[in-house]
From TrEMBL:
Gene3D superfamilies hit by this protein: 3.30.450.40, Hypothetical protein af1432
Protein name: HDOD domain-containing protein
Origin: domain of life: Bacteria
InterPro entries assigned to the protein according to its UniProt record, in alphabetical order: GAF-like_dom_sf (IPR029016), HDOD (IPR013976), RNase_Y/CdgJ (IPR052340)
Pfam families the record matches: HDOD
HDOD domain residues: 20-214
Amino acid sequence: MNTISHGLQSWLERFSQAELPALAAVVNDLQRLTLTDDASVGQLADVLLRDAALTSKVLRVGNSSYYNPSQETIKTISRAIVMIGFENVRLISLSVSLIDGLLTHAPREQLQELLARSFHAAVQARNIAGYVSRQEEEVFIAALLFNLGELAFWGCGETQADALAEALARPGVKREEAVKQVVGTSFRQLTLGLIKNWNLGELAALAQSPGRSADAAVRAVTLGVRISEAALDGWSSPGMQQAIEEMAAFIHVTPQEALSQVLASADEAVKVATTFGAGRLSRLIPSTDPEQIQLQQAQRKASLLQPDLALMQQALQDLGLQASGRGEVGLVLDTLLKGLHRGAGLERVMLAVLADQQTVFRAKRVVGEGTESWLDDFVLPVASPQQPHIFNYVLRHREALWMGVPASCNLNDMVSEPIRQWLGKGMFFIAPLMAGTRQIGVLYADSRSSGRALKHEQFVAFQRFTQLTGRCLEGLSRRA
């Protein structure tokens, strides 16, 4: 299409009616589902099943090792929603739609660079949000679409995109002035217009004016975007150092831990882009392996436990097979601890079971440096409802928790002094282990040995292992 557009309204009409109507419709429908509390599996499936190609791609991503490490085959959208969650399927659908809508034809370099930066920002923002908010998926989408107006322009601007590229290449040009002259409006106004027209929600809109909001999710979005931009100047650039310091203060970790998290998120962004079918963008996400970083971290990295994805997948597959009731309890628990420790890279893991007529928690299985003493020493009374502690709480509420981050700070008082004396201070994962409706005990994991921050993908694996182990124990109890 060669129609010349100039000004905000002209561009919005062109994107939504002529250039990107299919993308606009899918994005609108997917976002509308977040506005109702009773959005159902069926409603999300209906949106996707209108487009066979989109359905196929969502299922391919849902079956990837990133989202489905157990490799249990997912053949339907409904099954995908059950296996990897409503919000994850919505996130995948929106991301795949964006890639297809913008990269279908021969995309110009500016579009590819910006889309790569958008995926990088989204992963950084989501992992920051894991510390401070329960809105990780919404944060991912808001960061991914943070530069939607500019993405749409480079994808559909044609002769005007050529003109802007030429203008920006001139020495000493002021970017905002050049954009205003060629486009007739700013990219920020274009993004805000699309957010409104496509019903992208309050978080996406607030992120465009972060100074007006103290919301933690908004700050996670803007920090993720800043980190993705600063990374283009190098991991040790002044802009990156400032962003790292702000991030450390925001999520209450040291600057070194924040940098470690940022580098891990950059590597994760490469995997995410490839998983979503945008492997060509991977080369545009800044590498985390420049020589200076290798020199600084090689020695420490060599001594630390590293996740083993292949081993984790095998452990999940083994548990999946044992869920039918085959095998025996000892093998199930061995597989569980091996998968969490050597597979997910969690340094210390403990299964504390209800014992002594369900009056205490006792350590049943442990793995990791310095955990041997827990087998003899860890005995925690099951508190009364009037005096709950975190082990008691997760078992009663049947909820997996990531403790030590602001999102769960309201439960910090439940980490009692005896628990701190046995396990130390810092972040940890904790979840109830159930065999159907029967309470077995509590699963605990941390990376306290090295002091490394726990990661989003480790928490996902922790939850998955807990669920599968519960199914195994339920199957064994039925067989018995």
